[in-house]
Structures are given as structure tokens and as C-alpha cells.
Specification:
twelve-stranded mixed β-sheet, two-stranded antiparallel ribbon, 12 helices, 33% helix, globular
Length: 397
């Protein structure tokens, strides 16, 4: 079944494992079927099977700005000497479009059996949840995939990531072969999204700087980096593009920039006509276009690839370090990482707008084949993210 629809489980302070069989009555169409799923509960979880996390309301929680105190890596690894899972099944924390996650789960389990418990959440909640669990002594996810390299760098520095390297690592493009205990799976680009019913020709912003033009006063938006980890990466890119300064952001602020809570809100509000242009990852527009074409309605959304370079944000996957994990679960976790960077899966991700990390594969349909890309310095940003988030917040006080 689609576990994302099975809601209604109350919060619980304990973690449980089990298997339930129930009859689900569909309200649209009146069908019913037997639905089997496993579940585990933590204080944050409230649905069975595929679990969905609410966006956090506190800015620090959303971006993970409140970093845990530094501890000795070996001592930290020793704290994960227990395993709360079930042999033969792994827990995966992940973010991304539900249709893509459903398809990945279906294909992997066709090959490996019923071995996955997916916990689906936004990028910010994923970051904060992993940090919170690390501090409690055990990251409950065997694998986590999504967000951006920032949290993975911090976890790696804490000795919390398993050093597994998939055999296909050398099939990745050189820029994606990171010397870290995680693997890059895909990439997305921060671009200018605009309403093509309102802007055309010379009116279309050709650069991030054009968003400060008076013609767009009060009509521009991007997500709030104190609420969204992806927005933090985008804002950090704008900061670097400005020469490690705030010229682009102050120009947009003075031109009436509106801060959205989530990146996904940016194209939706532009589509609805609330705003004319904004900055957000490109892949959402590709998916919205496909949906509009399939359902036969016009979509007034277009993308401009800015002259300064579209800001590249990679989506890593990692296995949590846990010496108490059963060997069978370690094998499943490693197989899942292999699966994500395999050529068939990478081609599948292209269909959802994500850029492949493998050599020899094209760009997604709807994106230029050789875009001008700006690559964030993740190592430097890892050291400076708290300061950047704080300074950004001060700009909008």
C-alpha cells in the first residue's frame, strides 16, 4: 500500500517494532484492500510505514543552526553501540517528492523483498532529527538521504557516518567524488523562477541582481534560510557570489523580498500570481510542468538560468555508523546506497528533474545541457553556516 496515507498513530515516547494487517477503505472510489506495513515509533513520529514529518516552527530547529557540542569522535561512535531496529529491515530517513520515493521503494523491494521503512520529511526536519538522535546516543536511521552536504560534513566530523564506499564510485563525475564518508546521489540548481504570463522578453530577470530592479518591487520571493536548510545553502551561494558580502540580499530586501517558509512554496506562489519571480531549486518546476502536460492545463512557470551561475546543491546519502547493526541490515543499507547511484536509478531520478551524478547521462529534460553553474564551497560553509544564518537574520530585523 501507500504508507504515506496511513495516518493517525499517536505520539509515543517508546520505539516499537511490529507488523499490522488491516483493511483500508478508500473514500474516493470505495475500494478496499489488505494493507501490510511495519512501523516504528519515536517521539516525533505519528504515521505508519512511510512517515511524514511536519516542518519545524522554530528557526534553529529548521536549519540545525544550534550545533551539538563537540565531542571526541571515538567516544561519540561508542555511544551508538546499541541497535534499536529489527534484523532484516532498515529505516531510511529521506526527503523528496512522494511520487519519486514511492517508485524507488517499489523498485528496490522488487529486488530485495520487504526490507525498507521509509520516514519521509523535509530537508530541515531531516537535519534536525539526525542531530537530535545523535545527541541522544543513537541515530535511529540506518540510512539518510536528502538535504545538502552541510549536515553530512558535520556528522562526518563527529565520526557518525559509516565509511562505506560503493563499487560504482568511480563511475561518478569527478566533481561528485567527495573525500567524505557519504556519497552524492543527485544535484539540483538554484535558479530564477518567474511567471511567464507576467514577465517576457527584456522583463525576464537575467541575473540574481536583476531581482533588485524596481519593476519587481514587492513581487519577489525566496525561502527563509532560518526555516529551510536548502534555502540556507542558496543564501550562502548568493553570499559567496557577492564576494562574501550581502549585496544581492540587501538589494532584494530593499526591493520588497518576501521570505517563504519552504522552497516548494516559491514556485507555487509564483504560479498563483502572488509573486512575479523568485529563487528556488529548478527540479520543482520540471515536475510541475510534467504534471500540467499530463493533466492538460497551462502552467505559467518558466526558469531563467542566472548569469552569475545557477547555485548547485547536491543531495548526499549516508549510512549511520553503528557497530551493533546486524550484518544483514548493514548489507541492505549498502545495497540501497549502491541502488541509488546505479545507472537505472539515476535515469529514474532524471525523470523527476534531478541532475545525475554519473558520467555519461544527460541533463533532465527542461534544463540546459551545459548550464553555467556556481558551486558552493561546502567545507568553508560548514565552518561559517551559523554566522551566515545569523547575519542574514540581522538583515531582516
Amino acid at each position: 500500500c501507500n504508507p504515506s496515507r496511513n495516518a493517525g498513530i499517536p505520539r509515543s515516547p517508546s520505539r516499537l517494532g511490529g507488523c499490522i494487517r488491516l483493511r483500508w477503505l478508500g473514500l474516493s472510489g470505495g475500494f478496499n484492500r489488505m494493507c501490510r506495513f511495519r512501523f516504528r515509533l519515536t517521539p516525533c513520529e505519528h504515521v505508519h510505514g512511510r512517515q511524514s514529518e511536519p516542518e519545524p516552527t522554530h528557526p534553529v530547529e529548521a536549519t540545525g543552526q544550534s550545533q551539538p557540542t563537540q565531542t571526541d569522535a571515538a567516544a561519540q561512535a561508542g555511544r551508538a553501540a546499541r541497535y534499536s531496529g529489527v534484523a532484516g529491515r532498515i529505516t531510511v530517513y529521506l526527503s523528496g517528492p512522494t511520487s519519486m520515493i514511492d517508485r524507488l521503494e517499489q523498485v528496490f523491494e522488487q529486488q530485495h523483498g520487504d526490507v525498507l521503512d521509509f520516514v519521509q520529511m523535509g530537508c530541515g526536519p531531516l537535519r534536525q532529527r539526525v542531530w537530535t538522535e545523535l545527541e541522544s546516543g543513537e541515530i535511529l536511521a540506518d540510512v539518510f538521504w536528502g538535504s545538502d552536504p552541510l549536515v553530512y560534513n558535520a556528522l562526518d566530523d563527529r565520526g557518525a557516518l559509516d565509511p562505506f564506499v560503493p563499487e560504482d564510485f568511480d563511475a561518478l563525475r569527478p566533481e561528485y567524488r567527495v573525500n567524505r564518508n557519504y556519497t552524492l546521489v543527485s544535484e539540483r540548481y538554484g535558479v530564477i523562477i518567474y511567471n511567464s504570463d507576467v514577465l517576457s522578453g527584456d522583463q525576464v530577470p537575467a541575473s540574481y541582481a536583476d531581482l533588485a530592479e524596481s519593476d519587481l518591487n514587492g513581487r519577489i520571493t525566496h525561502a527563509d534560510p532560518t526555516q529551510s536548510s536548502t534555502a540556507l545553502a542558496l543564501v550562502a551561494g548568493l553570499y559567496e557570489i557577492s564576494g562574501n558580502a550581502w549585496h544581492l540580499e540587501t538589494g532584494m530586501r530593499d526591493n520588497g523580498l518576501f521570505l517563504m517558509r519552504r522552497n516548494g512554496d516559491v514556485p507555487m506562489k509564483i504560479q498563483e500570481g502572488e509573486f512575479d519571480a523568485g529563487i528556488a531549486p529548478h527540479d520543482a518546476v520540471i515536475r510541475l510542468r510534467k504534471k500540467a502536460q499530463k493533466e492538460g492545463y497551462p502552467l505559467p512557470l518558466s526558469m531563467a538560468w542566472p548569469a552569475e551561475g545557477a547555485i548547485a546543491i547536491q543531495r548526499p546519502v549516508a549510512i549511520s555508523r553503528n557497530e551493533a547493526r546486524p550484518a544483514v541490515n548493514q548489507e541492505i543499507a549498502e545495497d540501497f546506497v549502491r541502488f541509488l547511484i546505479s545507472e537505472p536509478t539515476q535515469r529514474m531520478l532524471l525523470n523527476f528533474g534531478f541532475v545525475s551524478v554519473r558520467e555519461g547521462l544527460p541533463m533532465p529534460q527542461g534544463a540546459p545541457q551545459n548550464p553555467n553553474v556556481y558551486r558552493v564551497d561546502w567545507e568553508t560553509l560548514s565552518d561559517n553556516q551559523e554566522r551566515i544564518a545569523r547575519e542574514f537574520a540581522e538583515l531582516f530585523e
